[in-house]
Every structure is written in C-alpha cells, then in structure tokens.
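Training component of the fellowship. As part of building independent skills, the fellow (R.M.) carried out the full modelling exercise for a liganded target. The chosen ligand was 2-(butylsulfanyl)adenosine. The inputs are recorded below so that the supervisory panel can assess the work.
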Amino acid sequence: MDKSEAKKRTRPTERDQAFGRVLKLRSEIARLRSAYHVENAPGVTDDVYDSLTRELKILLEKYPEFTDENAPENRVAGKPLDKFVKVKHQTRMLSLNDVFNEEELFDWEKRIKKLLQGGEVSYFCEVKFDGLAVSLIYENGQFVRGATRGDGFVGENITQNLKTINSIPLSLTRRGVGRSGSESLQARRGEVNGVVPAFLEIRGEALVSKKTLIKLNIENEKKGDQFFANTRNVAAGSLRQLDPQLVAERKLDFVAYDLIEANSLQTLLNHSEKHAYLKNIGFKVEKLEAKCKNLSEVIAFIKKFEKIRPDFPYGTDGIVISVDNLKMQETLGVVGKAPRFMVAFKYPAEKATTILKEILVNVGRTGVLTPLAVFEPTLVAGSLVSKATLHNMDQIDRLDLKIGDTVVIEKAGDVIPKVVEVLIRMRTGKEKKFKMPEKCPTCGGNVEKLKISSGFLQPSARTFPVQKSSVSPRSVAFYCSNPKCPAKDERYLEHFVSVFEIYELGPKILRRFKDEGLITDAADIFTLTKEDIAPLERFGEKSAENIVEEIKNKKKISFSRFIWALGILHVGEETARDLAQHFGTLEKLISAVNHNQTEIDSIENIGPAVLKSVDNFFQDKNNLNFIKKLQENGVVIEKKEKRKKGKFTGLTFVLTGTLSGMSREIAKEKIMSLGGKVSGSVSKHTSCIVAGVEPGSKLKTAEKLGVKVLNEKEFLNMLG
Ligand code: IVH
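Fellow's submitted model of the complex:
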C-alpha cells in the first residue's frame, strides 16, 4: 500500500462524517427537547430546533442505516417538572404535523380525501399562537383544574397560576342565543339557558402580547436580566413560576381553540361550531378565523394573514387548518401523536442553522477589512442564504465564532441575514479559529490595526479614512494601508451608485466598465453611451439602452444624498442630512470651509471629528475637481430639501440600540413622516434620544447633556 492510499483510508469518508453529524444532531436535539418540555426553558426558538431536525431527517433519508428506533427523535418528549403536581390528561394532548408550502398542503388534501373516499371537504382556518398549550377542566361549569401539555399524556397542574389570567372564566354560563348557529346548537343539546355540560375540557393557548414582551424586556434590561426571545418564552417562563403573584404581574392572556367533551360529536357538527360555542360560554376566541370551502380559500386566508402578521398583537407561527366536519375528523383519526384532520401551515422560518464553511475578507471603500461568513446555503425566510457579513473582528470574538461551527442565522422579512449565535454544543473539536490576514487580500498591501474609540479615530492613528458606521465603539479595525488599493475604488463606485440609486450598475458591471476603460471615476458614469456599452460581450443593445436610460433618470439628486454620495469620512446618511439642512446649498458649504466658518457650535448635531473630515475633504483640490466634473457631466442638485409638516416638526431625534418592534429604517421613516428630523449624533440641539436594546455611547452623551431619553414603549406611544 503506497502512502497516498494509506492516507485515503485513514481520512474519514463522507459517510463517516455524516454519521458523526447524525450523532451530534441527535444529542443536541435531545437536549433541546428536554429543555423545552421538562424545564420549560427552550434555549433556542422553534425555528432553530426545526432546522436541526430537518437536517437530521435529510441525513437519515440519505443514510437510512443510521436510523435508530430508540433514538431521541423517535421518542415521545420528556417528563413534566417535579415541582408541580403531575396530572394525567383524560384525552391525550396531541401536536400538529407541519406543512411548509402549498404543495405540501395539496398532498395533505390528497391523503385525507383518499381516506374519506370521496365527497367535498371544507376547512376551518385559525391563527396558530406562539404561547403555551394548556388544558382547562370545568365541572358543572366551575373551573377546577388547569394543566400544561407536558408530554401529551401527563402535564403539570398549574391551576393557581391560570387563575390569575383574567380571560380564563372561573365559572361558565351559556349566554342564551349568541351568534351563528348557537340557537340550533342549543336545541340539539337540549340545553336550557344558563346550563353547560357537567364536564368540559377546554384547550387553548396561554400567551402574552408583543407589547408585553417589549415591556418586560425593557424592564429586564434595566435590571440586567436576560431577554425573552419570544412571546412563548414569556408564557412558558411565567406559568412555571411557583408564586402565582409573580404570574399575575406578567399580564398573561388565554385564547381558546378547542373543546373536548365526552359526547361532543353528538351535539356539535363542525370545528367552527366549537369556536362559536366557546365564545358563547365566555371564552376569548380569536376573531381572525375562516370557514373555507376549499384549499384555494385556505391559501387566500394564509396570504391575508401573512400581510397582517407583523402587526398582529400576538406572536404567531402559522395557521392551523382543520377539516371542519367533526364526523370526518373522527374518521380520519390520529396517527402517532398528531391528528390526520389538522395541520399547521408554517410561514418561512426566520432563523435556521447551517455550517460556517469559511470566512472571506472584503476590503471596503475606506480600506477597512470586513469579514464575510460563507456557509452551506440554507433556506431562511423564504430565500436561500449563503453569505452574511460579520462586520468586524469584534463580532467574531463576541460570537466566539470558528470555521466549521454550526451557527444560527436570522433573516426577518427583508432584513439582511446575520449570524446571531454559535451552537457551541455542536462542536467536534475540529473547528478552526479565524485570524485576520496580515496582507490585504486585494492588493497584498500591509494590513494595519487601528484602535477606534466611540466611533472616532484615536489622535495617534494615521488619518486613514475609516468609516464610522463600520466599527463599533472601542473596537479594533483592520485596514489595508495601501492608498492605491484597487478595492477601495471599487467599493467607492458601489457606494456612489447605490446612493444615486442606479440599480442597473451592480458591482460586476462596474468592475467590467473599469477594466474596459469606460470609466476611471464615478463621474464618468454619467457620460456612458449606448455605443460604449452595447459592443461589450454579454451586453447587447437592450441592456445598454436600459443602463443609459437609468443613469439619465438619476442625474437629479437631493443635496443631502449628494453629500452622502461623496463618501466623506464620518459622513453617513444622517450626518449628510444634517449638513444639507444647515448649509442649504453646496456653494455655501464650500464657501464656509474656504472662509473657515465651519464652527462646531453653530452646526446642529455635528461633532468635531466630522467637521475636521468635512474641512479636509473640501480643501482637497482633487475632490473639488471631482465635484466640478460631476456637475459638468449633468448631475444636478435639487433645490430644496422637502420636509413634511406634522407633530414632530421642529424635533430632532437620535436613535441608538436595537428596537425590538421595528427596524431602524421604519423608525426613521415614521419620524420623518411626522415632520421630525433624525440625526446620527447627539448634541444640545437633540430633542430626544430613543434608546433600544444595547444602546451605544450616544446614550451616555445624551444623559450628560440632559437630553430626554425615551424607551421603545414611550417612543411607540409618542408615534401614536
Ligand atoms: S389546535 C393537535 N389551534 O400548536 C393539537 N393549536 O403544534 C391541536 N397552537 O400544542 C391544537 N395555536 O400549543 C391549535 N389555534 C390553535 C393553536 C394551536 C397554537 C399550538 C398548541 C399546540 C401546538 C400544536
């Protein structure tokens, strides 16, 4: 056997690696299941758990020989807590099978129709809440016992805690003839007004609103406690409290969704009637529900709710779809721990797990090296994600990220994907630490380290342009020290076209135009003609025409965006807006610099470091020539900055930290739509600072200056 053959034999095969991964996934899934069911303290969200389970399922499909009937994924979940008294459920509390898209929904319909042997099936749709499932027992109309789901067979008796929830009635009475169907229903039951069956079991979800989640997290932040990741964690965590007094403070709510009664099938015909009945006897039932004649109507409901979902007051994770007819439900029955007659439609996950394959390093327009995570492509919020910026070395250290790690990535709606967590327990010991390169990956120039304090350069550091927004307070920036590094030019071009909103010119096209000699700087973009572009390979008449047309349409720009596009050190979008407000025109700005009139105190929200870099920029002849060239090539600065009038007119806001209920962009838009200004830095002119989670140094400055500080809730109230 030669050496290379020996090496091949000792190297693990793909199958060996898969087996190792299966074992890792199994143990982590088992741990998470126990955390969820036994301790009621899920360490991760459902998305993360689902993602790991999906990976395991795919691996087992590929390698069926690794299947193990006694493995945790094939066992019923854990035991209830010892602290609460255990309760055996009279009827098992089931869970639901998930469907993730329309195709799976149609497959489900095909399966059930086959079992029902013909006939039309109508459905019932309702919201799937992100809380904790509980069972409530009523004897002779009195609430006698409430329990958690536990493992489905045995739960925990949490009656005292549930009694603190106002929406759980302590005694039930029929309210006479209510809405839809209750009159005939009552007749069918032979009930007299005011009487409910001797035994009733109600199932539903204990939950908190998103507003309560925000409020609790703000309080937790003040106390230095950990944040609740979602509404379910609050509900679960609260109901685990042994002291009902503490539970009462949490403002829990209860929404009923099912009714279990020994002889229910003789009296109620449809699942929708159950809901009507629940409402009638005093339970809160979600208004957003629909009887659907077919799956097209079900899909319409799913789409309708998807639009409302971000603003829905409660956390949700999908839609529950049931076969409406209860006789049909009985025929279909239960397989394993889930009914055949009900499924949960899950909206695309906003979090998923994947493996970090490598970390690439990009050079930005200011020369800063930015690490970029590259992972196994994975589906998050409906799109395939394979890369995410890691911003800087601090971020890598904070996450304790290593190459080969299993990571959690998050992408909510349109938000850019980010790595939020490392699943340390998934490590095998083969993960590698990442080091920033010593040479620039683009030009081979020396990489230097720069200490950044509060977003500004240390005085001793060389005045190499470092963009404030790319580094966090007191972090270390790595940058390429070669002033001629081509990556900087490229990134500047990308920044320029993005501020001018010339979407046809992506990074690849810009690089191509530069390589072909069509442009030497950003101003040349505005002289490009169809004849320049069309002859290039892979372009053609039509795309050349589109590009030229788009550039022509984007020649007009507001003053603030023009300033932003110049790429002045420390001048991002918000600071550019402040400068534009103060000076009004480019001429005035340049003349103020020439006459040394850019005085610190006179300019709202602008600090010394920004002013210094603005001065430097406009004193540089090359920059003035570049501006002249832009104007000669047809770029026009629009005269007046449009500002809406509203209740925030005259107020300047500064945002710091993360808001849990809305993105920063939306918050800015809302402020501006009410006539307010948003600034990037705090000064004595700031009216108030909105402090989200993990606020930056701006909060300290605001407190020093006596600027009013708003928390997220106060800010939301102010928005109205
Ligand atoms: S029906 C067979 N309706 O989802 C169990 N469940 O995955 C049927 N859930 O444990 C329950 N909202 O905690 C149903 N409107 C709703 C629901 C709902 C949330 C939860 C419940 C259950 C889990 C099943």
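The panel noted the following from the submitted structure. The chain has a mean pLDDT of 83. The chain has five domains: 14-75, 97-345, 351-433, 486-638, 652-719.
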